[in-house]
């Protein structure tokens, strides 16, 4: 089965010559959650906008469900729901009318039972007859999500959906995302909360300066690039790492009160046993030992730094 979203050799150049996307290739499988990570200005929103048909690519091709987003844009757009970063809603319209209107824009017949289900999932049902202007920022964000789901899309883009919202909405959002995935909806997520991406994504894509640096299964990426750190707290501070321990490439931290040892968990030997022995041989006393696994955020920062070097 072909990928539900196919991006082939896409470039987007704006007036003035700024190249927001450079020869971008991406395939997104049906029913997966893809976290698209990148620093501000990396091209995340531009990529989403071109896939959703809001911005035409300068070159290359994009298909959603087999439909070209330029030559067959109506069919492609029917399959896509978008929750944008910016809150842009008609302030004097009622919540239910706003969501119902969005469904009608895609040629869908009226289905108030479906819209009720969506609004209940987002804790908006009791606000259905409220005007948008009466809602808090978090509630307005929920309305954006309801609008995106109103026409039953098979591909849902969430562009920083929890930026600046309360913890309750974030929990509701991820519970809803999980239910949508179970229904086979494909979800593409951009977020500054990388711990969220680490918790829910199946695959991770990293984009920087308009180029996709990688797209990889989350578990494989963490296994391939993840490292562990062992923090060794000493009974007495040291002014320098003893020469006898040089081969371990220890980092001196907290003004010499602790040493940090980094190692690859995939290696046949971590070197921890010999390190502890050599620490004792160097006359260093151990107060405590702690380990920490690299997170997706650590890997993301490393990739962006390497790409910018």
TL;DR of this structure?
This protein has 309 residues and is of the alpha/beta class. The chain has helices at residues 44-51, 73-78, 95-105, 112-121, 137-149, 167-182, 194-200, 218-225, 272-281, 296-308; strands at residues 5-13, 19-28, 33-37, 59-64, 67-68, 80-83, 155-159, 186-190, 203-208, 211-217, 228-234, 251-253, 258-263, 286-293. The protein contains 10 helices and 14 strands.
Question: What does this 3D model show about the protein?
Answer:
The structure is a single chain. This protein is α/β, with parallel strands linked by helices and 309 residues long. It folds into 2 domains: 5-223, P-loop containing nucleotide triphosphate hydrolases (Rossmann fold, 3-Layer(aba) Sandwich), CATH 3.40.50.300; 227-293, Alpha-Beta Plaits (2-Layer Sandwich), CATH 3.30.70. The chain is built from 10 helices and 14 strands. It has a 6-stranded mixed β-sheet, sandwiched between helices. Helix 6 links the parallel strand 7 and strand 8. Helix 3 (95-105) packs parallel to helix 5. The chain starts with a strand and ends with a helix.
């Amino acid at each position: 089965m072909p990928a539900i979203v196919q991006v082939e050799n896409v470039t987007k150049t704006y007036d003035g010559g700024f190249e927001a996307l450079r020869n971008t290739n991406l395939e997104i499988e049906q029913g997966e959650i893809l976290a698209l990570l990148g620093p501000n200005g990396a091209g995340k929103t531009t990529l989403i906008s071109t896939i959703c048909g809001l911005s035409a690519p300068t070159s290359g091709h994009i298909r959603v469900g087999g439909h070209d987003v330029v030559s067959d844009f109506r069919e492609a757009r029917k399959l896509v729901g978008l929750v944008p970063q910016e809150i842009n809603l008609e302030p004097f319209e009622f919540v239910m009318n706003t969501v119902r209107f969005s469904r009608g824009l895609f040629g869908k017949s009226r289905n108030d039972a479906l819209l009720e289900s969506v609004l209940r999932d987002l804790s908006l049902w009791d606000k259905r007859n409220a005007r948008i202007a009466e809602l808090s920022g978090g509630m307005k964000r929920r309305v954006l999500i309801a609008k995106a789901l109103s026409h039953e899309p098979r591909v849902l883009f969430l562009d920083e959906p929890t930026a600046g919202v309360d913890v309750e909405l974030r929990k509701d959002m991820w519970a809803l995302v999980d239910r949508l995935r179970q229904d086979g909806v494909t979800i593409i997520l951009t977020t500054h909360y990388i711990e969220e991406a680490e918790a829910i994504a199946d695959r991770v894509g990293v984009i920087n300066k308009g180029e996709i640096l990688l797209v990889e299964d989350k578990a494989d990426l963490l296994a391939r690039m993840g490292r562990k750190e062992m923090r060794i707290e000493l009974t007495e501070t040291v002014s320098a790492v003893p020469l006898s321990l040089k081969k371990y490439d220890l980092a001196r931290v907290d003004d010499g009160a602790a040493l940090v040892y980094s190692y690859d968990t995939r290696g046949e030997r971590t070197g921890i046993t010999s390190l502890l022995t050599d620490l004792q041989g160097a006359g260093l006393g151990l107060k405590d030992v702690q380990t920490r696994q690299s997170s997706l955020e650590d890997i993301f920062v490393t990739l962006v730094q390497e790409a910018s070097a």
